[in-house]
Amino acid sequence: MDDYIIESNQKKSRMPARLDFAQSGTGLILGLFMWVHMLLVGSIIFGKGSFNFVAKTMELAFLSDTGHGFPIAVFFAVFIVFTLFIIHALLGVRKFPISWKQHRILRDQMQMMNHSDTTLWYIQVVTGFLMFFAGSVHLYIMLTHPDIDPFISADRIISGNMWPLYLILLICVELHGTIGLYRLCMKWGWFAGKDAKKSRQTMKKMKNRATIFFLTIGILALLVFIVIGIKHRDRVGEKYNNHAAVVEQVQADEAIPVKEEIQALEEGQEKEAAHEPEAIQPSDVTKQYGVT
Ligand code: HEM
After folding, report:
1. Of the candidates 238, 257, 280, which is a domain's last residue?
2. pLDDT of residue 291
3. Whether residue 153 has its Cβ less than 6 Å from ligand 1
4. pLDDT at 181 over 90
5. Measured from the CB, is residue 135 less than 6 Å from ligand 1?
6. For residues 18 and 54, what is the distance between their CA atoms, to the nearest angstrom?
7. Residue 182 has pLDDT above 90, yes or no
8. Which stretches within 116-239 are classed as H helix?
9. Residue with more model confidence, 172 or 245
10. Do 134 and 51 belong together in one domain?
């Protein structure tokens, strides 16, 4: 028995390495996903139509006869991302300082060493902790309401009071994601040149640029959503497609009487013109109604 205990103690477990590998893998997928996600959400900067096109494409609208798409496709995407998010978070918790004492020791050592990569690791721990709550709320809402639409999203942000949570989540995700991808490159030696110090500096520069780029897109997108949401406050729940259809219908309805009126006027004036050469010409009437 003693021999067995000694032997099993001597045997190094591969579990920590496997868990580390799983954490890197899920982190890589989520980090790259967030870049794509931010570009897609950023389409709102180019207008409601652009965002609607992206949303409908995500809902695989091109496969449906009605053009309405399948929100269930978004549900499945969110389900996969949420699962990866939870796995990644659970694996990350292993490395958190679990008591105030541990936290104090860590902070003291960080101050003593003044090592920038250790500071980056600490930022990751803090942002990861905040994202655990903020990210879960966002993902749960997307899971239960997999409805993406410029007005619905903007209503969620303003009338649903989600903007403070999105702002916190945005800052956390951009810091956490780019630091995470940078640390992955360092850890596994990706893109490492011959001069290790130089490639570390280059990677750090790229990391900072990526953070600024995605943070700018995210903040601009949030501002555009806020403006749309404020303007749409009295029509919460109305979808962009319905709104576009209503506008089209109203324009069509308004156009019919005006056209008929113009036609009647023109016909009448044509008759009058046959007797009075000085009468108003049809072209003047059409100009007055703005019809060319
Ligand atoms: C497949 C999964 C996901 C989908 C379908 C999705 C979809 C969306 C949509 C449609 C918006 C616009 C606002 C809204 O409609 O509420 C949004 C905003 C946002 N999402 Fe996600 N999201 C996903 C995953 C994530 C994850 C994992 C995170 C980070 C943990 C995240 C962070 C954010 C942030 C920070 C915003 C605000 C961005 C801004 O307004 O600039 N999302 N997301």
Report:
1. 238
2. 47
3. yes
4. yes
5. yes
6. 37
7. yes
8. 116-144, 150-158, 163-188, 196-231
9. 172
10. yes
Arithmetic mean of pLDDT, 4-32? 83
The response to whether residue 156 sits with its C-beta less than 6 Å from ligand 1 reads yes
Distance from the alpha carbon of residue 125 to the mean position of ligand 1, in angstroms:
21
Whether 107 is covered by a domain: the verdict is yes
Number of domain units in the chain: 2
2-11 contact pairs (CB < 8 A, 24+): none
CA separation for the pair 24, 88 (Å, rounded): 8
> Average pLDDT, stretch 83-97?
94
By alpha-carbon position, which residue is closest to atom 15 of ligand 1? 153
Are the beta carbons of 149 and 52 closer than 8 angstroms? yes
Determine whether the shortest distance from the Cβ of 31 to ligand 1 is under 6 A.
Answer: no
Q: Is 29 in the pocket of ligand 1 (CB under 6 A)?
A: no
Structural domain that includes position 270: 245-288
Residue with CA at minimum distance from ligand 1 atom 3: 78
Q: Would you say residue 249 lies in a domain?
A: yes
- pLDDT tens-digit series, residues 112-168: 888 888 999 999 999 999 999 999 999 999 999 998 999 999 999 999 999 999 999
Same domain as 252, residue 227: no
Q: For residue 22, tell me if it sits in a domain.
A: yes
